[in-house]
Amino acid sequence: MSPLQQTVEQILSPDILSCSPETSVGEAAAIMSSRGCGSIVVIDEAGTAVGIWTETDALDIDYRDPAIRLMPVSQLMSHPVLTVPHTLSLHEATALFRENAIRHALVTGPKGYHGMISLTDIVLNQGTESFIGLRRVETVDAPPVLIIDGSRSLPEAMQWMREAGRDALVVALDDGEYGIVTQRDVLRLVTEGPPDQPLGGLCSQPLVAVGRHTSLLQARRLLIARKIRHLGVVNDEGVIERLLGFSEILRSIEQEFMMELQQVLSERDKALLETRQNLLLADKVFESTLDGIMITDGDGIIQSVNPAFCRITGYGSGEVIGKTPRLLNSGRQPGEFYEYFWRCLRQEGFWQGEMVNRRKNGLLYTEHLSVTAIRDPDGRCRHYVAVFSDITQRKQAEERLHFLANHDALTGLPNRTLFMERLQSAIDRASESGERLALLFIDLDRFKLVNDTLGHLAGDELLIMVAELLRERIPAHGTVARLSGDEFILLIENVESVRQVAGLAQSLTETMSSEKQVSGQNVFVSASIGISLYPDDGTMADILLGNADAAMYRAKERGKNTFQFYTTDMNASALERLRLEYALHRALAQNEELEVWYQPKVALADGSIVGAEALVRWTHPELGPIAPDRFIAIAEESSLIGMLGEWVLATACSALRSWRERGLLMGRMAVNISGRQLKLGGIVETICRILDDAGVPHGSLELEVTESVAMEEGSGMIDVLHRLKEQGIYLSIDDFGTGYSSLAYLKRLPVSGLKIDRSFIMDLHRDSDDAAITAAIVSIAQSLGLDLVAEGVERVEQRDFLLGKGCTMAQGYFFSPPLPRAEFEALLVEQAGRRPCR
Fold first, then answer.
1. Are 438 and 556 within one domain?
2. Where in this chain does the record put each EAL domain (predicted)?
3. Is residue 592 part of a domain?
4. Most buried of the four, 22, 283, 363, 466, by CB within 10 Å?
5. pLDDT-based confidence at 608, cuts 50/70/90?
6. Domain containing 516: what range?
7. Which of 595-630 are b and which e, b meaning 16 or more Cβ less than 10 Å from the residue's Cβ?
8. DSSP code per residue over 166-227
């Protein structure tokens, strides 16, 4: 039923708070205070309501006289009691309340008193969301706020309220905040006697306030949610200007709502005049004028619509008459929906349910629709009558309630309930796919200090700020939630490595530990993070959460502002890799600690140096020399490999140019290049630019690609290798023999050389299998016309075997280990000195 048609009987409170005329004022006040009621009806022995005593009446009492509390309430009550019939409409009741300036009325019926109705009941049931959602608090005609100092007494506040005709005062507290004292607080005087303490200790605090631009709908919802009757209104500078209560809201919307009622009734009268020829049909169509009504013929052609239809849909009657209801179709209902819809109409003559349609302006709306088939005496369907109401706001409210039930009201993040559901779903998916999950339990350090020093509003502001930071940094397939207080939880799916999780945790601790401004104050708040992994640390949602919580407390015990894995060895490994990654970043940025060493490639026939391989070395100032396989793997995983590779290539080419200009090394410079480098955009152009900047011929560079990388199909690797070959760059396959490559595929590669892996060379002098494999690789290279280099030669027997099989070049410790540039250059100078003069 429309709010326009509601009666007081439908919203009244059936419980009548009452007392006898002999009841003392103190007893009456105690009853009202215990029941949280603003009035009490005085009923005599005959059961007749002889008066009413309200919170407003309590203002007129001088409580400094202790005899007042013993006085019968009949001497102070208001009378006669205003009564209204149970059939009175809400709007008639509203007008009556406004004319008599009252807040309470007794509802009567056939069997006596039915109950009580208050101004608050009316405001809560007006159904005026469409009006007050558009109006702002600043448009309400309310008197300026009265502020009383917190050092004053409650009797003084009563006198202010009585003289000013107010039902509440704002109380200025010593700490600069505000509280509020209302008529309800006055009841304490009657019940307990005059209090000794000043208003600052008696008032309700803090004062709940809203901005002047807040909508009346939001203000009303806040009043209901907080179970209060007044809100402070602050201006743009944060200064309290007014107090807003239920009575002000009612006064502000009543006039506008009555205008809408008048317009609706006018539209209804007009429609009734236009359809006077068929009174029965008109009665069905306009029995509820706030609901949209559409009448079609038996074929579904629209014959008539009411004004509410036009208001809801945005279409004028002339735009729809003669057409079908399909012009409202939103496309949200599938074909099966309409098949069932028409089957019900044809078989049963009635359908009712919810439907999403589209207004003329393109916006969607949800309606509750009832369609009835009107049949003639012969049972033939002559008309369809559709009656619908716009329930969009109700649906949005339901969705909002569902959201609030599953989300944190302050930050909008999922709450514990929703998070645990998502965690369980993620565990189920990971169990099927064999993937890993990570939980990061985040607790803010020093948050309590912010709350205690700057107040809860500042704490809330900080929590909102942290929630936004976490939203921005959450990876794909991740969920962030607020569990409670300053505790947040992050779920990461599709975890590839522990290092990935550690990197994210490190990034979060660095982000959180920055200085932030809250309530105009700079604060420093860090975070402690505990990490648990699925399935490593548990396979059940609550166990994973508990382990992440335990790891978080371990992080706090270790000094805060850090992270800890639940498993100890993961902590050590992750921290070491992060430390090395950071140090490698610094070494590349400062061009320190890193060096390029060179190992000679020699001709097996005479041991002369015919080329060199550039090898990167890193000496950490604290950890000493770092093995290449350790830091190169870190470079690969952290995307530093591109920067490192360019630096090695540029350094090696610079040295090669110097040696070529002096005639010391005319052979090729070999540089290893990884698969990740080859997949970088513009890698061919980058290599050519480095060669041109160094001023060395493209053919003097040899790029060594591992066999496994060269054999990757579908990655575009062969195309990149061909482009490098076209630029004149020499390509060779490193570690040949370890990748199980197809010889047919090998023939397709644009390579000019092979390097026998050291694993076959090291034991060929005593292992017949290694000797046979090495001999086979030499034979393959010769048959394909490829150059061949054996790496890892350390013994004379190995050299002699290779030379005997036809291998012409090698490198290894038998000839020279990798050397710093100066020592390698000395070898070149020494070799040049041994050359015969010509």
1. yes
2. 577-832
3. no
4. 466
5. very high
6. 407-566
7. ebbbbbbbebeeeebbbbbbbbbbeeeeeeebebee
8. -SEEEEE-TTS-EEEEEHHHHHHHHHH-S-SS-HHHHSB-SPPEEETTSBHHHHHHHHHHHT
